[in-house]
Amino acid sequence: MLTDMDNRMPQGAETSYDVVIVGGGAAGLSAAVALGRSRRSVVVIDAGEPRNAPAAGVHNLLTRDGMSPLELTRVGREEARSYGAVVRERTTAIGARRDDAGFVVDLADGSRVRGKRMLVTTGLIDALPEVPGLAERWGRDVIHCPYCHGWEVRDEAIGILGTGPAAMHQTLMFRQLSQDVTLFVHTAQPPDAEQAEQLAARGIRVVTGEVASVSVANDELDGVVMADGSRHPLRALVVAPSFRARGEILVQLGLEVTETPMGTVVESDAMGQTAVPGVWAAGNVTDLSAQVVSSAAAGLAAGASINADLIAADTRAAVEVYRASR
């Protein structure tokens, strides 16, 4: 089994693999397991900056519900290594390019890796609303997804920070979890007549004006302070981040980052294949709404697709040799 000795590569060192995976989260590690089990040589480049690191646990992942995100990836790395994958931790891919043999990826430590195929699973960045104190609570009691964090705040006083069209949707979703829900209009458009009727029918309070800051006591969110100085007690605040794909490596390989109502994304097909031959993408970099379980599934699908592509290439090469020998 390969270990962290793989991290201590000398300046300028170069190693070659069937597949280079940039990103060591659920998608990248699931692909590494699938490819390793297919006896492909694989390297995973893991910067160690998972999007979900602030969260106490992952959810909706059967048999692993509540497991720490960092523990999940630690176990995932060991599982990938058990099938022969090399995991380069605590280093970053800073450049990628195609050459005659496939792809070359330059790493921040001065070494480089080569691969016949590439899979990018670099995830996304949550661009949060600019409210003082909000970012420090992100992933704890400042949340965005009812499926990821809703159960943990059930029956609590929940606020929705309105910043755009998603506010109404989030408000009704979290009303399923608590009877104590308040929509803070903040910078969003006020509810129209139909929406106001829906909110009133569900017993949801509406507070106009901008939120100036979040209030914290004993390392817990305890409310929001409005621009007019009024304070509203809360135990959780729901926000709508703008999701920004970490697509720099994919752009270097010739792909474009696409703007969507949710944020930026790099497009791929159902199996993760992108418009650039030999390059796949999986997880949040190409699916902004993917949770851990769906990212893992996407990584598996991409790994299987890459393996099939390599099998086809291996077979073509074998046929050429066979014909030349006859």
Task: Summarize the model shown.
By secondary structure, the chain is of the alpha/beta class. Helices cover 27% and strands 28% of the residues.
CATH topology of the largest domain: FAD/NAD(P)-binding domain
Spatial gap, N to C terminus? 41 Å
State the total count of DSSP E strands.
19
Give the averaged pLDDT, no decimals: 95
Q: Helicity level, as a percent range?
A: 25-40%
Number of helices: 7
Major sheet description: 7 strands, mixed
Q: What is the beta-strand fraction?
A: 25-35%
Write the H/E string, N to C: EHEHEEEEEEHEHEHEEEEEEHEEEH
CATH architecture of the largest domain: 3-Layer(bba) Sandwich
- The secondary-structure class comes to alpha/beta
Query: Number of domains in the coordinates?
Result: 2
The CATH class of the largest domain is identified as Alpha Beta
Q: For the CA atoms, what is the radius of gyration? A: 23 Å
| Spatial shape | elongated
Low-pLDDT parts are 1-5
Can you tell me the CATH superfamily of the largest domain? FAD/NAD(P)-binding domain
Kindly describe this structure:
Helix content is 27%, strand content 28%. It is α/β, with parallel strands linked by helices and 326 residues long. It has 2 domains: 4-126 and 242-325, FAD/NAD(P)-binding domain, CATH 3.50.50; 129-238, FAD/NAD(P)-binding domain, CATH 3.50.50. The strands form 4 sheets. Strands 1, 2, 3, 4, 5, 6 and 19 form a 7-stranded mixed beta sheet that branches. A 5-stranded parallel beta sheet has the order 8-15-9-10-11, covered by helices on one side. A 4-stranded mixed beta sheet has the order 7-16-18-17, with no helix packed on it. A hairpin with a 2-residue loop joins strand 12 (211-217) and strand 13 (220-226). The protein is elongated, with a radius of gyration of 23 Å. The relative contact order is 0.16.
